[in-house]
UniProtKB/TrEMBL annotation:
Xref: PROSITE patterns: HTH_TETR_2
Record keywords: DNA-binding, Transcription, Transcription regulation
Protein name: TetR family transcriptional regulator
UniProt DNA-binding region: 29-48
Family annotation (Pfam families): TetR_N (PF00440)
Domain HTH tetR-type: 6-66
Gene Ontology MF annotations: DNA-binding transcription factor activity; transcription cis-regulatory region binding
Length: 196
């Protein structure tokens, strides 16, 4: 009979995300992740194979994390637009330093150069775009957005705004990330707001 796992895969993948923010994918090691959760590198190798397998597991989990974050934001809000803002801001609330974003951008290199990582990156983007589109349609039904707004285009534009704001803030550090992202999202959404 197999021994029960004392540390869940989710806990390991949470630790992986933390170490990625601190070190980036190049400097991340199984030892660094293992030290965070109290497991030896051979144990991580048994579960994930190697560093690449661990990083792929982390990437594969990211679309599910998007959907979970949207559900949590919906539970905290009644307005679809407030839900969208809450989701976007809660996704970056843990980021305190520009270096964390810089380290995360190292993952983009994997997303571009490696087909397996790109597949997960596309699923992550699709989860964001689909969630935004659903919230924008709900905002139209609630009278928050103009009825003829191009929801698919607005949802894609929101993804561009979100990713662009993160990269711009990582370089420039204008104010807090949440303030900067809020400002950018409001500028994107403003032309589509229903007239009061």
């Amino acid at each position: 009979m197999a021994r029960p796992r004392l540390v869940s895969d989710d806990a390991i993948l949470d630790a992986t995300r933390q170490v990625l923010a601190e070190l980036g994918p190049t400097k991340l090691t199984l030892a660094a992740v293992g030290a965070r959760v109290g497991l030896a590198p051979p144990t991580l190798m048994q579960r994930f194979g190697n560093k690449r397998g661990l990083l792929l597991a982390s990437a594969a989990r990211s679309p599910l994390m998007v959907l979970r974050a949207v559900e949590e934001a919906e539970a905290r809000n009644t307005s679809p637009l407030a839900t969208l803002r809450d989701f976007a801001l809660s996704a970056v609330a843990h980021i305190k330093h520009r270096q964390e974003l810089g380290n995360g951008l190292g993952f983009v290199q994997l997303d571009v150069a490696d087909a397996e990582f790109r597949q997960h990156a596309l699923a992550h983007s699709a989860a964001i775009v689909d969630s935004c589109a659903r919230l924008y349609r709900a905002a139209q039904e609630a009278g928050e957005l103009r009825p003829h707004a191009d929801v698919p285009a607005l949802a894609r534009h929101t993804l561009v705004c979100f990713n662009g704001a993160l990269q711009v803030w990582a370089v420039n550090g204008w104010g807090s990330l949440t303030e900067f992202l809020t400002e950018q999202l409001d500028l994107v959404i403003a032309p589509y707001l229903a007239q009061e």
